[in-house]
Design brief:
Blueprint lengths: L1 H9 L5 H13 L8 H14 L9 E8 L14 H12 L3 H9 L2 E8 L11 E2 L17 H20 L4 E7 L3 H13 L16 H15 L6 H8 L2 H15 L4 E2 L3 H13 L7 E2 L8 H9 L15 H19 L3 H12 L5
Parallel strand pairs: 1-2, 1-4, 2-3, 4-5, 5-6
Helix pairs in contact: 1-10, 2-3, 3-13, 5-13, 6-9, 6-10, 7-8, 7-9, 7-11, 10-11, 11-12
The structure holds nicotinate mononucleotide and 5,6-dimethylbenzimidazole (DMD).
Nicotinate mononucleotide (NCN) binds next to strand 4, helix 7 and helix 11.
Keywords: Cobalamin biosynthesis, Glycosyltransferase, Transferase
Function: Catalyzes the synthesis of alpha-ribazole-5'-phosphate from nicotinate mononucleotide (NAMN) and 5,6-dimethylbenzimidazole (DMB).
Pfam family, one: DBI_PRT
Length: 356
């Protein structure tokens, strides 16, 4: 609890003065006002986060947190549960979908076990931050205790802190957990009082969507999570990797480092962090709009507009990694473009044949 409390207390808003300066600089560049659209918005946000006008997001990491879910026994996912541990190993060894996309973007993937139901050997390369061996079945009782929910959040904070210490200057949230779309829909419905039918989709595949909705409804009825208490909601109907990702968002904000969020599960986790400390919003950069129906609702609740719509629903942090080059472009824009004035002067020199 101490780490969570200290982290929450250390989060401040982005530097609005620096954002004003960045806006002035962006507006002076050689282009029609506002013509680089969201790229301008991102550059200004990055300046506010880092308190610098010379921007750098060259050291990138996707934090991919993996955990298992007890609600698997309710038949809410038609994929085998071993996929969770298989993909966590794949993250560490570099052969999953997110790894391929991160590689193309020059980013590393950090694989973290926050609650896989098996023990992994050190040689797996997966960082051990295990809080417990998977959650309990939320359709029968709380997924985890309040203390475990806090420890999961703190595991994410710890990883964020460790990565920033190693020089990482932009983070992204990613995850793996068979059944975590059930947990995410339950958290979203409980936190914002939605009917589960409005925020539940097929995930990675399910035999009956109606059955999945009924299980979520039952979990909320049995556990009665308190919408005013995000940790209570996380503990009762959430997941360990959701807590971990909320922690990564909080840790990023506390370190004044931008954090790119991925699809549905990542966005719901960011909402948990936002409910704990609304100032984290200044540090969050959205990436893509997941095909999962609850993703649009979650983005709107967070007040972010995903920049890409690639019909993706893989998770893992794949969409966030795909957005990394857009951040690079925003930095390059503010760092290397000439101003209208400089371009004019240069043009006059060229025309006067003064450039050798
Ligand atoms: O990120 C998304 O928007 C997303 C949407 C659907 C599925 N997923 C991935 O699929 C897994 C969960 O699917 P499920 O059906 O088992 O709940 C989990 O490991 C996620 O990474 C991810
Ligand atoms: C193979 C597979 C890979 C995944 N990655 C994220 N969720 C996933 C679900 C499955 C089934």
């Amino acid at each position: 609890m101490e780490l969570l409390q200290a982290t929450l207390e250390s989060i401040t808003e982005a530097n609005k003065e620096m954002m004003e300066k960045a806006k002035e600089k962006v507006d002076s560049l050689c282009k029609p006002l506002g013509s680089l659209g969201k790229l301008e918005k991102i550059a200004i946000q990055l300046a506010g986060i880092t308190e610098k006008l010379e921007l750098d997001v060259s050291n990138k990491a996707v934090i991919a947190l993996a955990a298992d879910h007890g609600v698997y026994e309710e038949n809410v996912s038609n994929n085998p549960q071993f996929v969770t541990v298989m993909q966590a190993i794949g993250f560490a060894k570099g052969f999953t979908g997110v790894c391929a996309i991160a590689r193309a973007a020059g980013a590393k993937v950090v694989s973290v076990d926050v609650g896989i139901k098996e023990d992994l050997p050190e040689s797996s390369g997966v960082i051990n931050k295990k809080v417990r061996y998977g959650t309990a079945n939320m359709a029968k009782g709380p997924a985890m205790s309040r203390e475990e929910a806090i420890r999961a959040i703190e595991a994410g904070i710890e990883v964020a802190n460790e990565q920033v210490k190693q020089g990482v200057n932009v983070l992204a949230t990613g995850e793996m957990g068979i059944c975590n779309t059930t947990a995410s829909s339950a958290v979203l419905a409980a936190l914002f009082k939605y009917d589960p039918a409005e925020v539940t989709g097929m995930g990675a595949g399910v035999d009956s969507l109606q059955h999945k909705i009924d299980v979520i409804r039952r979990a909320i009825e049995i556990n009665k999570p308190d919408p005013e208490d995000p940790i209570d909601v996380l503990a009762k109907v959430g997941g360990l990797e959701l807590g971990g990702m909320a922690g990564v968002v909080l840790g990023a904000a506390a370190n004044r480092v931008p954090v790119v969020i991925d699809g549905f599960i990542s966005t719901v986790s960011a909402l948990i962090a936002y409910k704990l400390e609304p100032k984290v919003k200044d540090y969050i950069i959205p990436s893509h709009l997941s095909e999962e129906p609850g993703a649009k609702i979650a983005s709107e609740l967070l007040g972010v507009e995903p920049m890409l719509n690639m019909n993706m629903r893989l998770g893992e942090g794949s969409g966030a990694a795909l957005a990394f080059p857009i951040l690079d472009a925003a930095c390059s824009m503010i760092n290397t473009m000439t101003t209208l004035e400089q371009s004019g002067e240069y043009m006059q020199k060229v025309m006067a044949d003064q450039i050798v």
